[in-house]
Amino acid sequence: MAAIEQGLQQKQQQKLSPLQIQTIKLIEMPVQALEQHVREVLNDNPVIDDTPQKGEDEPRDISISEVEEKEQSGGSLEENYGSQDDDIPSYNLYVNNWGKDERPEYNTFSVKQSFTQSLQEQLGYRNLTDHQRTVASFIIGSLDDDGYLRRDIESLVDDLAFRAGVESNAQEVEQMLRVVQEFEPSGVGARDLRECLILQLEDKKRTPAVANALRVLTEQFEAFKNRHFQKVMSRLRLSEEEMKGVLEEIRRLNPSPGGQIDDSYNDQAQQVVPDFRLDYENGQLILSMPRFSIPELRINHKYSEIMENGRLSPSRSDKEAATFVKQKIDSAKWFIEALRQRQNTLESTMRAIIDYQRDYFIDGDESSLRPMVLKDIAEKTGFDISTISRVVNSKWIETHFGIFPLKYFFSEGLENTDGEEVSTREIKKALRAMVDAEDKHNPLTDDELVDGLAAKGYKVARRTIAKYRALLDIPKARLRREL
Description:
flat; 3-stranded antiparallel beta sheet; Arc Repressor Mutant, subunit A; 5-stranded mixed beta sheet; 21 helices; single chain
């Protein structure tokens, strides 16, 4: 029988405080989500007061050159407000980083109507039975983001029965798919690229070039897809001029009809709201965090009296009320302090990014963007890399030359022939320029692109060129060849 051994083992385990958990959650939130969350907290916690106090200063813009001031409250939470077992002193905890008025004073940038919404709206104008409308609506919901239907008809029939409880058949689903394929944007509901292009050509006025393009796509699609133009011309007996007309017509078509309508935001978030604004005035970069429709928060004084009365009262009900209030006050303290820390963290991170990319923010010249990764900003601010990642995610800045997600300013770097580090974005821009300027009758191969970039001072491997081509949606040389 094996002997049973006993021993002690010491383990280190990090446990986040309620304040840290609150702060992490708030840092991740974009402006609109934060506003909604604050409203929910106000409804759930009666201790928090959002009534503006009279005579307080308005928030002001923050100059990049200013040194970050020390927190006005000073000290720790425990020092200012007591521990769980201490008496609570007067409540002067509040956050005044946001404006007091209900109307937001930031700029909102609307995105287009969602893809699904647009199709469902068009479906509403069709004269169909309720049953047909349900089938067509289910088909719309089955489309991919690019507008294609990549599921076979029989699968849709089964899903209609099991998921929607609707009995249908392949013939009816096919019929309703044809209805959806008549919607805008043209080409929607196609099951492959060939059908997508044909649907768009069928919507156009039937000119000789359109007729020839339809012949090419219906009879010689594989040869055309592989750029074997001479074979296509020979098999369909098209002249070089007619083939050029075919190419011109097909180039005007959209291979991703769903992309015409921006569906990058769901129905609950149809706007982009910048978290920061950067102005360039008199040679100075001025950063501000626009006034949100988030009210000023503080802890209501009257609840201190309830707790104090409960502490002194012999009544059990009074003590229970005081305990409840104590819990709510602790929760309010953590939330308000987390809001304050979120503000400071976002501001410090954005200042560090602007300082790192100062040359770029002055004129918006993309070639001025320095290679920058999360670690660079983490070292500059003293925050953890995970904190910088949370700040960067889903945050936007409005500048004097455009609106950008914070992720845009981050890119890795490569060395040029002089040993200097250059941004990969700069190399991609040079690659794009070379491809745009090439002879389309004899496009540059990847090896030639490597040599061309080397001549410009960029040391890039062939596999890197292939990777960047894919990222920039640039086809291989053979597929870029034209007549």
